[in-house]
Amino acid sequence: EGADGTPVPTVKRPVSSVGVVGTGTMASGIAQVFAQAGYDVVYVGRSQEKLDGVVGYVTKNLDRAVAKGKLDEAGKDAVLARLTGATEREALADVDLVVEAIAEDLDIKLELFRDLDRICKPGAILATTTSSLSIRACADATARPADVIGMHFFNPAPVMKLVEVVTTEATDPDVDETVRALCLATGKHPVSCGDRAGFIVNALLFPYLNDAIKLQESGAASMETIDTAMKETKLPMGPFELLDVVGNDVSLAIQETLVGAFGHEGWQPAESLKQVVAEGRLGRKTKAGFHTY
Ligand code: CAA
């Protein structure tokens, strides 16, 4: 039995190779997680430059671990050797599990799932790390909805242990169990959740982050004061710091999805959130967001 009383999951569909689609922060982090846990990883991006970005991200993190004495050079090389980049999705034909982390846009995801359905071998598990879009819509873009599941990692993926495992009515229970077992095998903590916009964490976290911006807009307190106050409640980061880590474009997209799904008037995205996105101040990844880096 696990800590929450549920049976410890076992791998029902053997997984030794993992495909990651995307080259952004989440995709890079997820590729690192699996490579570090000993899986062979094929990661797919649109250009060699983007593929190089994934290696750069992972190398930087591994170098930091080496500098801290937590990993030796041989261990670093072994992790990097398990990563294979490809610019064609056809490279995913033989993997046992695909985790996609491409743009948070339903049409783009649906086009990808149609491709995965065409390319991947029978029995492959097709997972999305969407943070707020419908898993069922992705599943229904394929002729194998039983193999489709949500596997929602958090940013930064190599550090954050939580993974929301999101099933639909169509998901094969063996797929659910295998994915939860894989989470444990990669040192993650899976929680099970239904296919509802925002799942657990984002449905609760983003209205709070959005409200933090509106509080600042009201003139009640500065960004710095709000960040400091919330950190005093033992949250690891203040809301503006966390928005900049997640990315303001991603945060805006999530908030818009939540408004679309639940229609709460009070959840309309804050004006300053729309403004920083329009100005390209997307957060740490562009060296400026609410704060400057
Ligand atoms: N990538 C890889 N490793 C990183 C990292 C990164 N971006 N940032 C920090 N780390 C590592 C550090 O190297 C360090 O590793 P060791 O323990 O091996 O030495 C470890 O993480 C702790 O880092 P620090 O001591 O530098 O800093 P910290 O204690 O403040 O931790 C943090 C950093 C883990 C990011 C912490 O600030 C935190 O938990 N912040 C909140 C993050 C959060 O809530 N994320 C969820 C956002 S919502 C989301 O992601 C959902 C979505 O769909 C968008």
From TrEMBL:
<feature type="domain" description="3-hydroxyacyl-CoA dehydrogenase C-terminal">
    <location>
        <begin position="198"/>
        <end position="293"/>
    </location>
</feature>
<dbReference type="GO" id="GO:0006635">
    <property type="term" value="P:fatty acid beta-oxidation"/>
</dbReference>
<comment type="pathway">
    <text>Lipid metabolism; butanoate metabolism.</text>
</comment>
<protein>
    <recommendedName>
        <fullName>3-hydroxyacyl-CoA dehydrogenase</fullName>
    </recommendedName>
</protein>
<dbReference type="GO" id="GO:0008691">
    <property type="term" value="F:3-hydroxybutyryl-CoA dehydrogenase activity"/>
</dbReference>
<comment type="similarity">
    <text>Belongs to the 3-hydroxyacyl-CoA dehydrogenase family.</text>
</comment>
<dbReference type="GO" id="GO:0070403">
    <property type="term" value="F:NAD+ binding"/>
</dbReference>
<feature type="domain" description="3-hydroxyacyl-CoA dehydrogenase NAD binding">
    <location>
        <begin position="18"/>
        <end position="195"/>
    </location>
</feature>
<keyword id="KW-0560">Oxidoreductase</keyword>
